[in-house]
Design goal:
This protein is of the alpha+beta class. The chain has helices spanning 2-12, 24-30, 34-40, 50-56, 91-96, 98-107, 135-148, 152-155, 157-160, 171-174, 179-190, 195-204, 221-235, 240-257; strands at 58-59, 65-66, 81-85, 112-116, 121-125, 165-170, 207-211, 214-219. It has 14 helices and 8 strands. It is found in: Nucleus, Nucleolus.
């Protein structure tokens, strides 16, 4: 019976059997406190104590809590792109005045601009350097004003003054006129050598573009209303002399007001 005795010797001589069992005092030393883990690990966010919360809250005399003033946090801004179509008859003036157009858009509004000659449009895009959230819409209004026929110097006022708008309407919106009657109405609005249009602009402090039967007015809300009323009166057939008289009265009132 030699084999069983050999197996017994191997089992008794196994080193794992000779490892002493841990004592109770030793087990207590190995265990860690949970509070020590929370304070030692910097990645674990520790919950605020009730004393810290109470110390931060300040109550006024009426019992209302006072909070610390909020901090301005710069929100994440999206990169937006807008396209402004340019009519074919305004492409040549756009190329001629391009340095005057993109300079205020890039320097003042901090926008990215390019002229797309294939699609005949001006593309505007905001970037991380754009400071004002309404800069993109202001730039679109500026390019749109030039596309309608306004001069660059007049359209730049849209970038500098916030209270300027553009209103566009057609003669047929006021009154339906035929071929000859339509041309007469356009002639009454423009006047001889454009004198009537200039008189309305100077009296109402606006800028007017008369492109065929389409009329565009650039100015403040009240001034646009004055210019529109004069143009509507001319379309309906009112003599230019009476329109001049009403404009003189309005301009005198505006001078007294300012």
């Amino acid at each position: 019976m030699p084999a069983p005795t050999a197996l017994l010797k191997q089992s008794t001589e196994n080193p794992a059997d000779n490892v002493p069992l841990p004592e109770p005092d030793r087990e207590e030393e190995i265990m860690l406190d949970a509070s020590q883990i929370l304070t030692s690990d910097p990645n674990i966010v520790q919950p605020a104590s009730d004393e810290a919360e109470n110390s931060e809250m300040v109550v006024d005399e009426e019992g209302r809590p006072r909070f610390a003033p909020g901090k301005d946090v710069d929100p994440a801004r999206r990169v937006e792109t807008r396209k402004v179509p340019i009519p074919p008859h305004r492409m040549a003036p756009l190329k001629a005045n391009w340095p005057k157009i993109y300079s205020p858009l890039v320097q003042h509004l901090k926008l990215q601009v390019r002229m797309n000659t294939k699609s005949k449009c001006v593309e505007l895009r905001s970037s991380r350097f754009t400071e004002s959230p309404g800069a993109l819409q202001t730039g679109v209004d500026f390019v749109h004003a030039f596309a309608l026929g306004f001069d660059v110097d007049d359209a730049v006022a849209l970038l500098r003054v916030d209270e300027l708008y553009i209103e566009t309407f057609e003669i047929k919106d006021v009154k339906t006129l035929g071929n000859e009657h339509l041309s007469r109405a356009i002639g009454r609005i423009a006047g001889k050598d454009g004198k009537t249009k200039f008189a309305i602009e100077n009296a109402s402090r606006t800028r007017i573009v008369l492109a065929d039967s389409k009329i565009s007015i650039l100015g403040s809300f009240k001034n646009i209303h004055i210019a529109r009323e004069s143009i509507v009166s001319l379309i309906l057939g009112k003599p230019p002399g009476k329109v001049y008289n009403s404009l003189r009265t309005v301009s005198a009132r505006m001078k007294e007001r300012f």
